[in-house]
Design goal:
- The complex is a heterodimer of chains A (about 300) and B (about 300).
- Chain A is an alpha/beta fold and about 300 residues long.
- Chain A has a single domain, classed as Rossmann fold (3-Layer(aba) Sandwich).
- Helices cover about 30% and strands about 20% of the residues of chain A.
- In chain A, the strands form 2 sheets. A 7-stranded mixed beta sheet of chain A has the order 1-11-10-4-9-8-7, with helices on both faces.
- In chain A, strand 10 and strand 11 form a beta hairpin.
- Chain A is globular and about 70 Å long.
- The N and C termini of chain A lie far apart (about 50 Å).
- Chain B has one domain.
- The two termini of chain B are about 15 Å apart.
- Classes of the chains: A alpha/beta (about 300), B mainly alpha (about 300).
């Protein structure tokens, strides 16, 4: 594995254990009938520090989901070591501080959004007044107050994702594992979820984020690991991973006419090569958010959207 | 998952004393509500219609036979309901949770797998208990309502039989006692309890099968087969005893008897509704056997499920 990060002290060396410790994790599945062995994860190691947002990215079938399942105790490792806040992830106790949002989650269709949060809250040991206060707070956080008493069966994909996120954090876990949290969510909802992830980080919550939206990972993660064929192929801090070391970028605002020509000439004189120049572009997402932003209706006038 | 010595207790095994009854109740309640909202209680309307039809068809039976018919049809409907729901409702739960990934969100909370299994099972048992109680109560009300007219008919038959001669009070009381024997008795409670125990055993068997099955359909078909064979437990034993089938046949017979629960044990309804009293000892023995089978199948289900790769 290639690493561009600074070495992280091991759990044993640290008084505060990392949120997640994965050491030499290997998972081999046996197929049902032929008993053929399929290696899903091979000698994978990484750590997530407390309060850190860690992106786990890789192509489909690279072993991300299996790794997450091992961390959550849903699947047992063939070999290796996995701990959550210093507790063996196979133990039920390790899940007291973990929240999980699976990819494309489904919940009990017979329940309303409110009942769903109450159900998961109770499973986490929250009851009575505490639960009654927590549920509306969460519904407001994920923007589902108006749909709180509607049956989950009528929820859109984005709403399911948001109620899924709410159930993941119902017990205020110190670690949240998110598998494609913005799948099927519109850009505005997606932005809300990203803001929520950043808010969790501000509150000291550790997050493992699995996403195919690399821009999203780049935006919110402190560190990321790229997994391919069950192995960690690249890991490090996002700034280190994404910077192009041989190039520099300047964005100038309000320059006098001719400034661009002067800069170009300066670059040529120094013997360097100008790779690109032009007006910076906004992203389609920003454009979408700006143009679809809800405007206050003008008093006495007509709203033109 | 930390590397550990081979003889160490696996980390995911939860000691019994760490099972939270409150969490089990949360899961059981959710299961019960889930099944109720699937409108399973509509069956009670069919039950009510059936017993009312039988109650109204008194002309086709002798007075005491009419009481037996009401009880027989009611217990038949109760049996049908509990068997169908014990199998289908239990079979739907685990495979669907796995398919919908609801299981991931539940088990990624601090919920041991045994709590999940118990919660799901108790939800079905609660549904069966309430449905059986409602049907039993309806049957009892109907029998109690019919009793005076049956007594009256018996006394009238007695008077007609006497051909105008005087009938002693003892004879009248005897006629009433005959009617009472076919009416309500504590043995009926044992009969409905036996039916409930059988439903619980079938649910536990279905739960176990669902831990190894990959679909609800497979679970339903296999469970129905187990229930079918379970009713012929004694027959299998007798067959291998009477027909000398050699050591292989004997082995198969013994295996069938060990693997399949003896559901015939709980078939006391026919005796009870025809007036046979069931003793306390027999009732307790049934209860013991029921609890044994439920415990056994929950234990085996847990042994399979605790290591299941989700």
């Amino acid at each position: 594995m290639e690493s561009r990060s600074h070495p992280v002290p091991s759990a044993a060396q640290s008084a505060n254990p990392p949120a997640v410790l994965v050491e030499h994790l290997t998972k081999v599945f046996e197929t049902s009938f032929s008993r053929a062995k399929v290696s899903a994860v091979a000698d994978l190691s990484f750590q997530v520090a407390q309060g850190e947002i860690y992106g786990l990215i890789g192509p489909n079938g690279s072993g991300k989901s299996t790794t997450m399942k091992v961390i959550l105790g849903l699947v047992q490792a063939t070999s290796g070591r996995t701990e959550v806040f210093g507790i063996d992830s196979g133990k039920v106790g390790s899940r007291r501080d973990v929240g999980f949002l699976p990819e494309n989650p489904y919940f009990y269709k017979h329940m309303t959004g409110r009942e769903t949060l109450e159900f998961y809250g109770k499973l986490c040991g929250i009851h009575g007044a505490e639960l009654r206060a927590r549920v509306p707070e969460l519904l407001a956080t994920v923007g589902l107050e108006t749909a709180a008493d509607r049956s989950i069966a009528g929820y859109s994909k984005g709403m399911l994702q948001r109620i899924g996120l709410a159930q993941a954090i119902v017990h205020r876990p110190r670690l949240v594992v998110l598998d494609e949290p913005t799948a099927g969510v519109d850009p505005r909802g997606s932005r809300q979820i990203r803001d929520l992830i950043l808010q969790m980080k501000a509150e000291g919550t550790s997050v493992i984020l699995c996403s195919h939206l690399l821009e999203q990972v780049q935006e919110v993660c402190d560190r990321a690991g790229i997994v391919s064929k069950g192995r960690m192929v690249l890991e490090g801090r996002l700034e280190d991973l994404t910077q192009v070391e041989q190039q520099m970028e300047y964005v100038v605002e309000g320059g006098a006419p001719g400034l661009a020509d002067e800069i170009r000439a300066l670059v040529e004189r120094s013997g360097a090569r100008l790779v690109s120049s032009g007006h910076p572009r906004t992203t389609l997402e920003k454009l979408f958010l700006e143009t679809t932003e809800e405007r206050e209706p003008v008093s006495g006038g007509t709203r033109h959207d | 998952m930390t590397d550990r010595a081979p003889d160490a207790i696996p980390a995911h095994v939860v000691p019994v004393w760490e099972i939270s009854p409150l969490r089990v109740w949360v899961l059981a309640r959710a299961t019960f509500v889930q099944l109720v909202r699937m409108k399973v209680f509509y069956f009670l309307l069919i039950f009510a219609a059936l017993v009312l039809v039988v109650a109204g068809a008194g002309l086709f039976w002798l007075p005491t036979e009419h009481l037996i018919a009401i009880k027989r049809w009611s217990f038949g409907a109760m049996y049908l309901f509990t068997m169908v729901y014990s199998i289908s409702a239990t079979a739907l739960l685990l495979p669907r949770d796995l398919e919908d990934r609801t299981l991931y969100t539940i088990l990624s909370k601090p919920v041991p797998r045994i709590e999940y299994l118990l919660g799901r099972l108790f939800g079905v048992l609660l549904l069966n208990a309430l449905a059986l109680a409602a049907m039993f109560l309806a049957m009892c009300l109907l029998v109690a309502w019919k009793m005076p007219s049956v007594e009256k008919q018996l006394v009238q038959e007695l008077l007609q039989g006497a051909g105008g001669e005087a009938v002693s009070l003892n004879e009248v009381n005897q006629a009433k006692a005959d009617a009472a024997r076919y009416g309500l008795s504590t043995s009926l409670l044992w009969a409905v309890w036996a039916l409930y125990l059988k439903a619980c055993v079938v649910s536990a068997v279905t739960l176990f099968i669902s831990t190894i099955a990959s679909s609800s359909l497979f679970t339903i078909v296999t469970s129905a087969m187990v229930v079918f064979i379970g009713h012929f437990h004694q027959l299998i034993l007798d067959f291998w005893k009477v027909n000398e089938t050699g050591w292989f046949g004997g082995l198969i017979g013994r295996l069938l008897v060990i693997v399949f629960p003896n559901l015939g044990l709980f078939d006391v309804v026919d005796e009870v509704i025809t007036g046979t009293e069931l003793t306390l000892g027999a009732g307790l023995q049934l209860t013991g056997m029921g609890l044994f089978y439920i415990g056994l199948f929950v234990l085996v289900a847990q042994l399979v499920f605790v290591d299941k790769e989700l």
